[in-house]
User: Fold these one by one.
Assistant:
Number 1:
Amino acid sequence: MFPTHRPRRLRQNPGLRALVRETRVERATMIQPLFVVPGRGVRKEIASLPEQFHLSVDQLVEEGHKLADLGVPGVLLFGLPERKDAEGSGAWDEHGIVQQAVRALKRALPQLLVITDLCLCEYTSHGHCGVLRQNGDTVEVVNDATLPLLARIAVAQAEAGADLIAPSDMMDGRVAAVRRGLDDAAFTGTPILSYAAKFASAFYGPFREAADSAPQAGDRCGYQMDPANAREALREMQLDLDEGADMLMVKPALPYLDILRQARERFEVPLAAYQVSGEYAQILAAARAGWLDRDRTMWETLTSIRRAGADVIITYFAHAAARQLDKS
Ligand code: PBG
């Protein structure tokens, strides 16, 4: 008695396996996040994110060259300003750290896409993503007073030459505010990639050390989404589309593949998924302990994110993955 169906026939050798592979991770789909800091000649490994660096603008341009040579299409920029204040004014300063970085990158490498994260938390002394107001005993993050500031940051980033603006603050109405701000400043052609379904996740832990953006008090649960809510995520995405988002993002990636899949089925716009700092750091830590094979785990996670429906993956592995594709 032989089995009638033998799926293993097509698994016999690497050639057959490659022929029938349904999902491929190509370098054209990966965006590398980078952290830019003041100074010159700075390239300092980030303790919480092994193999990722704090880069001064000159070093950032060096890194941009390497990424472009490897065929990575773009970078997502985060800035650590010289000084923080209560408003977060470094975020829209025309000489602010990210604006300097965008100008330098676009001058040196016009073809490399520069995406700017649009948020206040790296720039505010309190570390929240919006304007704070004391309300009796509690401090609240005020939604509507934050919106004009976000629009102002977007215009500063567009003026510097950003190809794509990515608001990550999770205030209500921010995509509309950013779109209006850009349009009023004649940046009608600058697209918005909205962090539409961004969850209040423990997986941002290493990033907050990297970007020095942890809230001084309280947490982000009043504006980021409850990890338990899938329907609400779809509603957030619909709202952002209605407000004028050109692309949508799900963040984090691996713990939210169900959201990504549902979004893929429901929306026609390009979808991005952000494999966040904690997703990356846990793989590197386990690999260092000898418990996981770093590269195999990297490819498996990237493939899963693509399989679930992401067009674009924002990942700290972009550089490493592209280098491996280069060699293979
Ligand atoms: C800013 C922002 C955060 C991340 C991206 N943009 C941090 C946060 O919301 O606390 C996290 C990215 C990562 O963990 O890799 N709001």
Number 2:
Amino acid sequence: MRRSKIKELLGGKQAGDEVLVQGWVKTRRSSKNVAFVQISDGSTLADLQVVVGESLPAYQIVDSLNTGCSVSVTGTLAESLGKGQRYEVQATSIEVLGQADPETYPLQKKRHTPEFLREIAHLRPRTNTFGAMARIRNQMSQSIHGFFQSRGYLFIQAPMITASDAEGAGEMFRVTTLDLDNLPLKEGAVNNEEDFFGKPAFLTVSGQLEAEIFALGLSDVYTFGPTFRAENSNTSRHLAEFWMVEPEVAFCDLEGLAELSEDFLKHIFSQVLENCGEDMEFFNRWYDNKAISTLEGIVNSNFERLTYTEAVDILIKSAESFEFPVSWGLDLQSEHERYLTEKRVGRPVIVTDYPMEIKAFYMRQNDDGKTVRALDVLVPRIGEIIGGSQREERGDVLLERLRQAGLPEEAYWWYLDLRKYGTVPHSGFGLGFERTVQFVTGVPNIRDVIPFPRTPKNAEF
Ligand code: ATP
Ligand code: MN
């Protein structure tokens, strides 16, 4: 018999059908002449109830069906009389595939703290939270590709290793094959010529520059992959390895980019609402009782637009006492971002035109000589989830900005070339995938929305 996943069984089969189900035991209840075994297989949040009557040979082994053990069950699908489920399986046979010793299996209780679950990251996919998280991540990944594919964007794979030593090496992880205990020296310093690439190499912090290369030939492209930051920020919103979505769009200005970011987020959120109802109800119940209504609100409203200058005015005039200072020229901290989106507007806010000094050299300079065409999308609870800009497409201005920033222009020869040969206005942004999953689910810590979190001093699994 072909195996049925619990999802298809609860959705597409009929009472009376013979079925084969395989999964892991969540709980077991036995009474005098019947046992109820809840099993899950990851296909859906709902457990399947397996009923084992005492007349069955399988009834002899129900006492060994411990939480966590894996089983193969055959039986008949039947309408369930119990509440909370439409169908159950009346078992005809049960085989234990792998035992889980109840003395040592760590997932005995119904609820465990997120901190504890992080220590057993090899078992946490068996919890409801991680199942729901994985299914929502999966849906969101699909929606991201779906959104861009339906608009004719090409998915470009940016390299993870970059040998350009110019991206702000302070926050980058170095990739090397040099023997750290026996470094080759040349004139008293490390001889990088002996390293694998003949020069220092790093893990990428962003696929933007590579995406720009492809956009300036193929028009509309996006990357979606892991990025790495060696920043030592131990916050609930920062990981050392996280996934980023980076569209890069030729012939597009900042206004076009703002529209794109709004359409994009709405698309992801509405698809999650449409396809992950059960999982969202779970997060709504256990993590944030506004998770669903927040997403619905966003899908049905327009994002607010503010310039950085307007945002700073609002913050200064507000009666809030902030931990960090607010004044024109300083970057917005997450408390400021949250005030704007949560208290002031109650919806996502797109802030544009930041001071030049606090933004990257490649952002297009405004005519005021003070601000650049930058854009951040702020959402309640999280603050920034998207950062982007219209890019400086004028070669002379870009060169000037590189020099001002003290960056080595030789290292950017190819980036400058793109402005020399057939330059066009273009724009792009980066969406932090895990921050978006955090926002969608209401899970407070970013370590709990990625399968294997990488943070300072932590890479066990
Ligand atoms: P922040 O100021 O919050 O540290 P950033 O300005 O450094 O973020 P960008 O370089 O603009 O971030 O990156 C684009 C997006 O990537 C951000 O809007 C955010 O959603 C996400 N992001 C940035 N750093 C991290 C991180 N360490 N962990 C998870 N997501 C991140
Ligand atoms: Mn940013």
Number 3:
Amino acid sequence: MHKPLIGAHVSISGHLHLAVERALSIGATTMQIFTKSNRSWFDKPLDLEEVSVFKKAVKAADLRGIMVHSSYLINIGAKEESTEKNSVKSLTLELERAEALDIPFLVLHPGSHTGAGTESCLKKIAHNLDIVLKKASGNTMILIETMAGQGTNVGSTFEEIKQILELTKNNHLLGVCFDTCHIFSAGYDISTDDGYDEVFKQFDKIIGLKHLKAFHLNDSKTEFNSHKDRHEELGKGNIPMTFFKRLMNDQRFAVVPKVLETPTDPDMELYKRELKLLRSLID
Ligand code: FE
Ligand code: FE
Ligand code: ZN
């Protein structure tokens, strides 16, 4: 039997390859990282030495299904032209960095319309994804993250995500990242057994389960359908552990990487405990 791919978002502080050590220290088999500051548009290019040390460390650690989370500043659906331009440039750079590091997935918040309306925002996102993906020179996929629906963020319904996937011509390198906190906050009730079946049935019908390439495993501090994005430690929020138990045993997602983005401490003891807990849920 293959090892389940579970891990967490870990820091690259000090050096990129230190993320690999951090992932191993919590017993992870996959991880998510930023490859640059998550609050900056651009960064100096990665140097070759850095890239090769990172790749060697990943190989030695046998981490698979790694994902990069792109900068929080990026909004390729932005109403304002300068923001849109910077976002396209920044996302292109993020993709190049992930490709250079041989990382298979780049997670992206689809965007927000800031008053311009959902429809035009979705079109703009698809248009800009085409621009970015046209320059793709590797196998790294951009994964659209399911959103909680805060403010004017788009991508909190399966229909909106489907529209982005369909409007993008270059979509063979596009997939979806399912964030459990966001899904629950967006109004998809995964808290019951029937709800579990129904939500994934809907996902399959509207988007297609084959496009689901990664999970963010977070509990939700806020109640169902709150449209708020507040992550909580597994078991401490409003998503019951029965959900995570089913997910960990769902053979459809056996090889899909799953990472925690829950609040943790500097020593990541909380992550360690959560990963242990997740592993204990597997039958
Ligand atoms: Fe995210
Ligand atoms: Fe997330
Ligand atoms: Zn979130």
Number 4:
Amino acid sequence: MFEFIYSVGQFISILLVVIWGLAIYSTNGLIYASTKKGQRIWKGVILFSIRSGLVLNFAWISSIITMGVMLGWLFIEDKVFVFLPLILFPSIMVMVWTMPIFSQIKAIKEGDKEVVSLFRKIAASPRFSFPIKTMQLGAVLILGLSIFGSGVLPEGIDLFLFFVVFGLLVCFLFFLQKRIHEKVTKEDFQKPKWMIRLIKRLAIIAVFIIGGISWITMGMERSTLPAEISMVNHDNVELGGGSMIHHNHSHHSGGHDVSVTELVDSSSAKPDRTYTLVAQKKTIQLSDGETFDAWIFNGQYPGPQLRIQKGELVEVTLINKDIEAGVTIHWHGYNVPNAMDGVAGMTQDAVQVGEQFTYRFKANDEGTYWYHSHQQSSEQVKRGLFGSFVVLSGDEEGKTNEITSIGDNWLFDGKEAIVSDGHDQGIVKKRMSTGSDVRLRLINTTNHTKTYFIEGSEFKVAAIDGQSIHKPQDLKNTKLELGAGGRYDVIFTMPDKPVLIKTSGYSQQGKTDAQLLLSQDGQGSVPLISAEMQSFKLEEYGESLQTPFDLSSDYDREFTMVLGQRFGFYDGKPNYLWTINGEVFPNTPTMMVKEGDLVKTTFVNKSFMDHPMHLHGHHMLVLSKNGKPVTGSPWWTDTLNVVPGETYEVAFLANNPGMWMDHCHNLDHAAVGMTMHLSYEGVSSPFSIGRDTLNQPE
Ligand code: C2O
Ligand code: CU
């Protein structure tokens, strides 16, 4: 819906430029028309373009109103304050000045000499022409802003300056029109030679080209990332309505800054579990003979499943065998102490070839998580540097049959991995005895939303992002859409007929969907996926339960993050940008909090793609979706997929001090700047990123 209204609005703004351009063009035509036929044609075109221009203005305004009514104020805020005046004022001018003369022109009969000069006088008069030109200026600005503009309401002063510039341009147009009028109404006026007109036109085009080129070079230069910067932006700090207790260098009140490296689990206990993960290159041979240059952990694709009992102290040693760019491990969705978060350039340096790094943390939460490199992550995750991370509550182990679906692979009881990405088998068949409990751990490690279909049995969604659902109901004929980075735990009891689990989504060319068939004897026919599958509605699933905070709580800080798109530049190259509040990293805002703050964030997606927003180190409670409170089970998430046109309010308790990333988990978006940070006051980092460092977190 959002995409539709938005595209309609966009299309109308293109038409506006064309139609008001035509109005100007035909006015010029009438000024110079010497034959009756010419007069008739230009008159007709003027009448047509002005009339339809006004209709289109109205249509454009209606599209904005519709969007506001259907999706909410945040979707049109910038349109109302920036775009609307650009159309409204000129429209009024056209109506009060141009239109009365319009009917005058209509009444004049085509004719010779006298009529020619009469038409000329009227058509060139500022009262007639100037409003039309202003209208065209407004239309061009609207189109330009909707392609290159930030998509958010500019700060007060910027908005003011914008209208000052607009006002100056309008004045310029007015005086220009006066001069034109004086010139063409002179007794001895001669239609200028075509050469002169051509030169004038070329000059105007040249001005635009020069302007365009300087805009591009300036944009490229300004977008070039500095050779070395701190990841957290200290220039665009948002306090979300809260305050800062101490400033970096003020007095002694706030104590000294804590370095992220100090934020560790300080117990000296012996770890309950130790693992070694060796990052290495390996060429994987697929059964159809194709090869894939993978970068993987311990020679496995995907990396080994780490299975841990809740409460255990875990130690994982990462060794980089031969990944030149360096690697790290980030525990996606798991709330570890900040120093263990694995973000190259913020919580550690990327581990270079031959080096190692030990992660140590206590497994306090059970559930389904995953780990992946957070160095050059958009490339390294695609190549295979990831695996699943499962924390068990103790009594589950051995009782249920676990199947993990990670990427396009199946993993049974955490062991045997079957790559079923279509290059290999189209369908994987496994034995599962009737009556046994099955737990599917669905992990979307890709960059795009995936859909999972389960046919042949009713099922329950037991957990989302590792967090259990309170009293989940049975589901059937329901497809599960899972945003990038997210997880679902699905449970069911194996019936006496086959069950098909199928994933589909953004599959690469030549690949088919991953399918798994479970049956008593490991054979059997594949049930058909029913055509009428409804979407899973998380916001009303399960039963509600008291939560530590809700919509009525008092929040210490409130942030609004508008996810948008525009053309622009990133690191010196022209690019299609995915923005947060109109900006890309490193200009995106930093949300500043202090320990103990209750924080509310509103996410609004005004772009055309899904943005799975992933906050490190914290679970967010979803409070409302599209303005409606969540009515089902408490919905805790670490990767919230915000679909175009959606608005979410989420909240979290700031109880894990450090510097944390908050970014889109379409890692290709993150790689072109769709990242921001949550920073606790008084925390600093000795690490940095940029060309002169070895850290490239995205
Ligand atoms: Cu799964 Cu910042 O990452
Ligand atoms: Cu995104």
